[in-house]
Structure formats: C-alpha cells, structure tokens
Specification:
This protein is an alpha+beta fold and about 100 residues long. It has 3 helices and 4 strands, in the order βαβαβαβ.
C-alpha cells in the first residue's frame, strides 16, 4: 500500500465467521495490509443471537476487525466481503484517519 491511509474501517462480524474473514482479508493486502482484531459482546435489538449459549447470556459473541486503509478502497473491500459473507449480521463503519504511522 503506497498511498497514505486516510480512513479507519471497522467490520463487526459474528465470532463464527472471524477466521474465514481474516483469511479472506489476508488474501487481499492491496486493501488492508494491517489490521487489529478485538473480541466483544453485542446486545440489543440488533444483536443476532445465533447459538444456545448466546441466547442464554443475551449477548452475541462478535469480532471487531479494524484496519487503517485508503478511503478509495473501502467500497471494493466491502463488495468483496459481502459476496464472500452474505449475512445481515455483518456491520461496518468508517472514520477519517488524520494521521497514521509506526514507531521506529
């Protein structure tokens, strides 16, 4: 990735597809060559309680995948992810990234 990263994309997916999503993203370093994964619980009307344990707990297990990237690449990445993972349980958002760098 040579152009500056100007966008932070976050994908929120059910834990059940986390590994497959990471594998899919890893095959496309042209979109996002660096990402972070956090594990969270989701609650409320939008929560997709898929497993018996999630229904008992009242919370869905989720993976948040955050990646600094070029804003112009977001649409292509999302289109690919939607094709590969056609689920309404996937959500996403972007925020402007005003600076990005690495120490050292």
């Amino acid at each position: 990735m040579t152009a500056p990263r100007d966008c932070l994309l976050t994908l929120v997916v059910p834990a059940s597809i986390e590994d497959a999503l990471l594998e899919h993203l890893g095959a496309h370093p042209e979109w996002a060559d660096s990402l972070m994964v956090a594990h969270q619980d989701g609650m409320g009307q939008g929560a997709n309680l898929a497993t018996a344990m999630e229904k008992v707990r009242g919370r869905a297990r989720l993976a948040l995948v955050t990646m600094p990237m070029q804003a112009q690449q977001v649409d292509a990445l999302l289109a690919s992810v939607r094709r590969q993972f056609p689920t309404p349980a996937l959500s996403w958002w972007t925020v402007p990234l005003t600076a990005y760098g690495r120490s050292g």
